[in-house]
Structures are given as C-alpha cells and as structure tokens.
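Hello forum,

I keep getting stuck at the same step: I have a sequence, I want structure tokens, and every attempt I make locally crashes halfway through. Rather than fight my setup again tonight, could one of you with a working pipeline run this one for me? It's a single chain of 359 residues.
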Amino acid sequence: MSAPSNNTAAELRAKFAAALCEGHSSEWPAAFADVPREHFVPVFLRQDERGRWIEVSAADPGYLETVYADTALTTQLDEHGVPTSSSSEPGLMLAMLDALDAQVGDTVYELGTGTGYNAALLASRLGSDSVVSVDVDPELVRLARERLAQCRLHPFTFTGDGAEGYPARAPYSRVIATAGLQCIPPPLLSQVREGAVIVAPVGFGVARVVVRDHGEATGRFLPTPAFFMPRRTTGRSPDFAGLEVQPVERTAVPAQDVLDRLKFPLSLALPGYHSCSWRDDEGDLTGVGLWVDDGSTATAHVGGKVRQIGPRRLWDTVEELASIFPKGTPAREDFRLAITPDSQRAWYRVPDGPSWTLL
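Reply #2:
Ran it on my machine without issues. Output:
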C-alpha cells in the first residue's frame, strides 16, 4: 500500500481537530488542524493478540486513521520491550493545554519533548521563540528537532534533566510536563514568574497550580485521568523472592481496588510506586504486586492473603486508603495541592482532611 496523500491527511486532520474540540470552548483547534501528527509519529507500535509489539507505518492499512484518532501511540521500547516513549492521547493533551491557558506573549517550558508533537502545537500557536522543550533522551531530542524543522517550527530543544529546568531562558510564565512526576520539581518553581501556571502529571492525575510569591503555589487536580511515562530513574527491583518467607496476613480490601478505584490516591500516598498483576488462563485477576524504589514490596491475592517486606509496609497504606475511601472512586478534582519551597502536600477536599506528603 502506498503512503497516504497530503490531501487525505489534511482532511483527516481537519475533522480530527474539529471533533477533538467539539462541545467546549478552546483556543487550540487551529493548532491541532495545522500540525501534522504523522510527521511526529511516522512509525508507532501496537501489540497483537499474543502481546507482541508490531511496527505500524504509513505503508500499513489504517495507519493515518489511527494517527488521527484520540488515542495514545507507543513510539519507543526499552531492551525489555517496555514502552519508554509515546505520543499522548490528543484529548488529554488538549485538556492540559486548555488548563495551561497560555497566550501569545507567554514563555513556555516543556518537560518531556518526546516525539515533539506537543512542542509543535505550542510553537504553532505561540511562536517558536516562546517555547523551550527538554528531554533526557538525546535521540528523541534529535528526531523531534528534525521533525519540528520539517514543519518550519524551531522551538529551543535540548537534552537534559527536565526537572532541573533551564535558567538561561527563565523566567517562564507557563510550565507543562508530559512525563509522569511524583511532585512539581522544586527547581522549576524558582524559574517562573509570579502568577505562572504549571500543568503537570503528578501521580495518576494532572495537577494545575498557580505560583505565588516566594515559590509557593496552590492548585487542584483536573478530573482527567493521566498515565504518562514516568521520568527515567533508577531504583531497586521488587523483592518477590523475599516475600516467600514472610508471614501471611489477611485483608478485606479487594486486590482489584489497587488497579482501579484506589489507583489515583495510591499514587499520592506512595509517590512513584510500581505495580503488576497476575491472571489465570481465563484472564481473571489472581493477585497484584506493589513495590517502591527502596525495595519495599507487597503482594495481595484475590483470596485475601497478603505478604509484605521492606522498610515500608505498602499494603498497610492500601488499607488506610480503603478506610478513607470505603466506597466508590474518589474524584480527582476533589484533591488539592499546597506547595512551599520546602514541602509539597496533596489533600482531599479540606485542608485539614486526609493528606499525603509528596516532597
């Protein structure tokens, strides 16, 4: 099959932008209609029925339709076949850009260049000189820079630790992150103007905060779920072998709760936690595993058996959350953030209610 024509891509892109922004007021439809997403995702990967990763390119049927669907596209795997980069779901990108409320004249710092598509949207609307974008992966930065140039967009892109910011271009009036974070990186708070807006994935939610004097900021979480690629860090592996000699405990909290209704608050109570699950031949859940970078590990069987090891008792945290949220899934927009130069705290509904220290 030959590559799709420019006319076909333009038509799909126009329909995509209109559908994406339909039903609410947004200043971003023109950028989504202008920036060709296929330039930034010439190849993506999807899993087949056996879980194998298959490359999809413009020569494959349905490529362009998938590019212009409201779906995230995996674009990079590590040596173990674990995704390390993706083009985010456009609907989520739009929600974050709307929350950023960037206007012409604002200077934007983006943490997580990735494919370059989000930087392209920013540069298309605000101008290339107003956008600074960073990624830890030099190859991603190189490719993004090339693809941006193809679109005649030239934001300042560089390789580095995005959490450290870029003081030479500061101060910024807007900051957006497209990589999963455990908190708002403190160096960024010192590189923004008073009144700056920061929109960033924190845990499995998206926080929007407004910076005040002296590096203090307050804000709340958007209602939109978010599951971004985490910043690349090193940490200890789970100690599943060590669990085998630990005593069995009992829990009344369903293992499934870790995977759905308690997933977001758990990401605040255990910043940067990792999880896995096990299923039987029919696909039914049999158990879940949790671990954090200090090696603390826990497993819970659907029958109620729990084992824990390490300096932190992770399932005890799950139990605490289940007592705070005994029924239903807590709404993300009911969670707030309070930030000072020395601490960051998430709280639920009222300042003296349940809270969790992020920094």
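The mean pLDDT is 94. If your local run keeps crashing, start a new thread with the error log.
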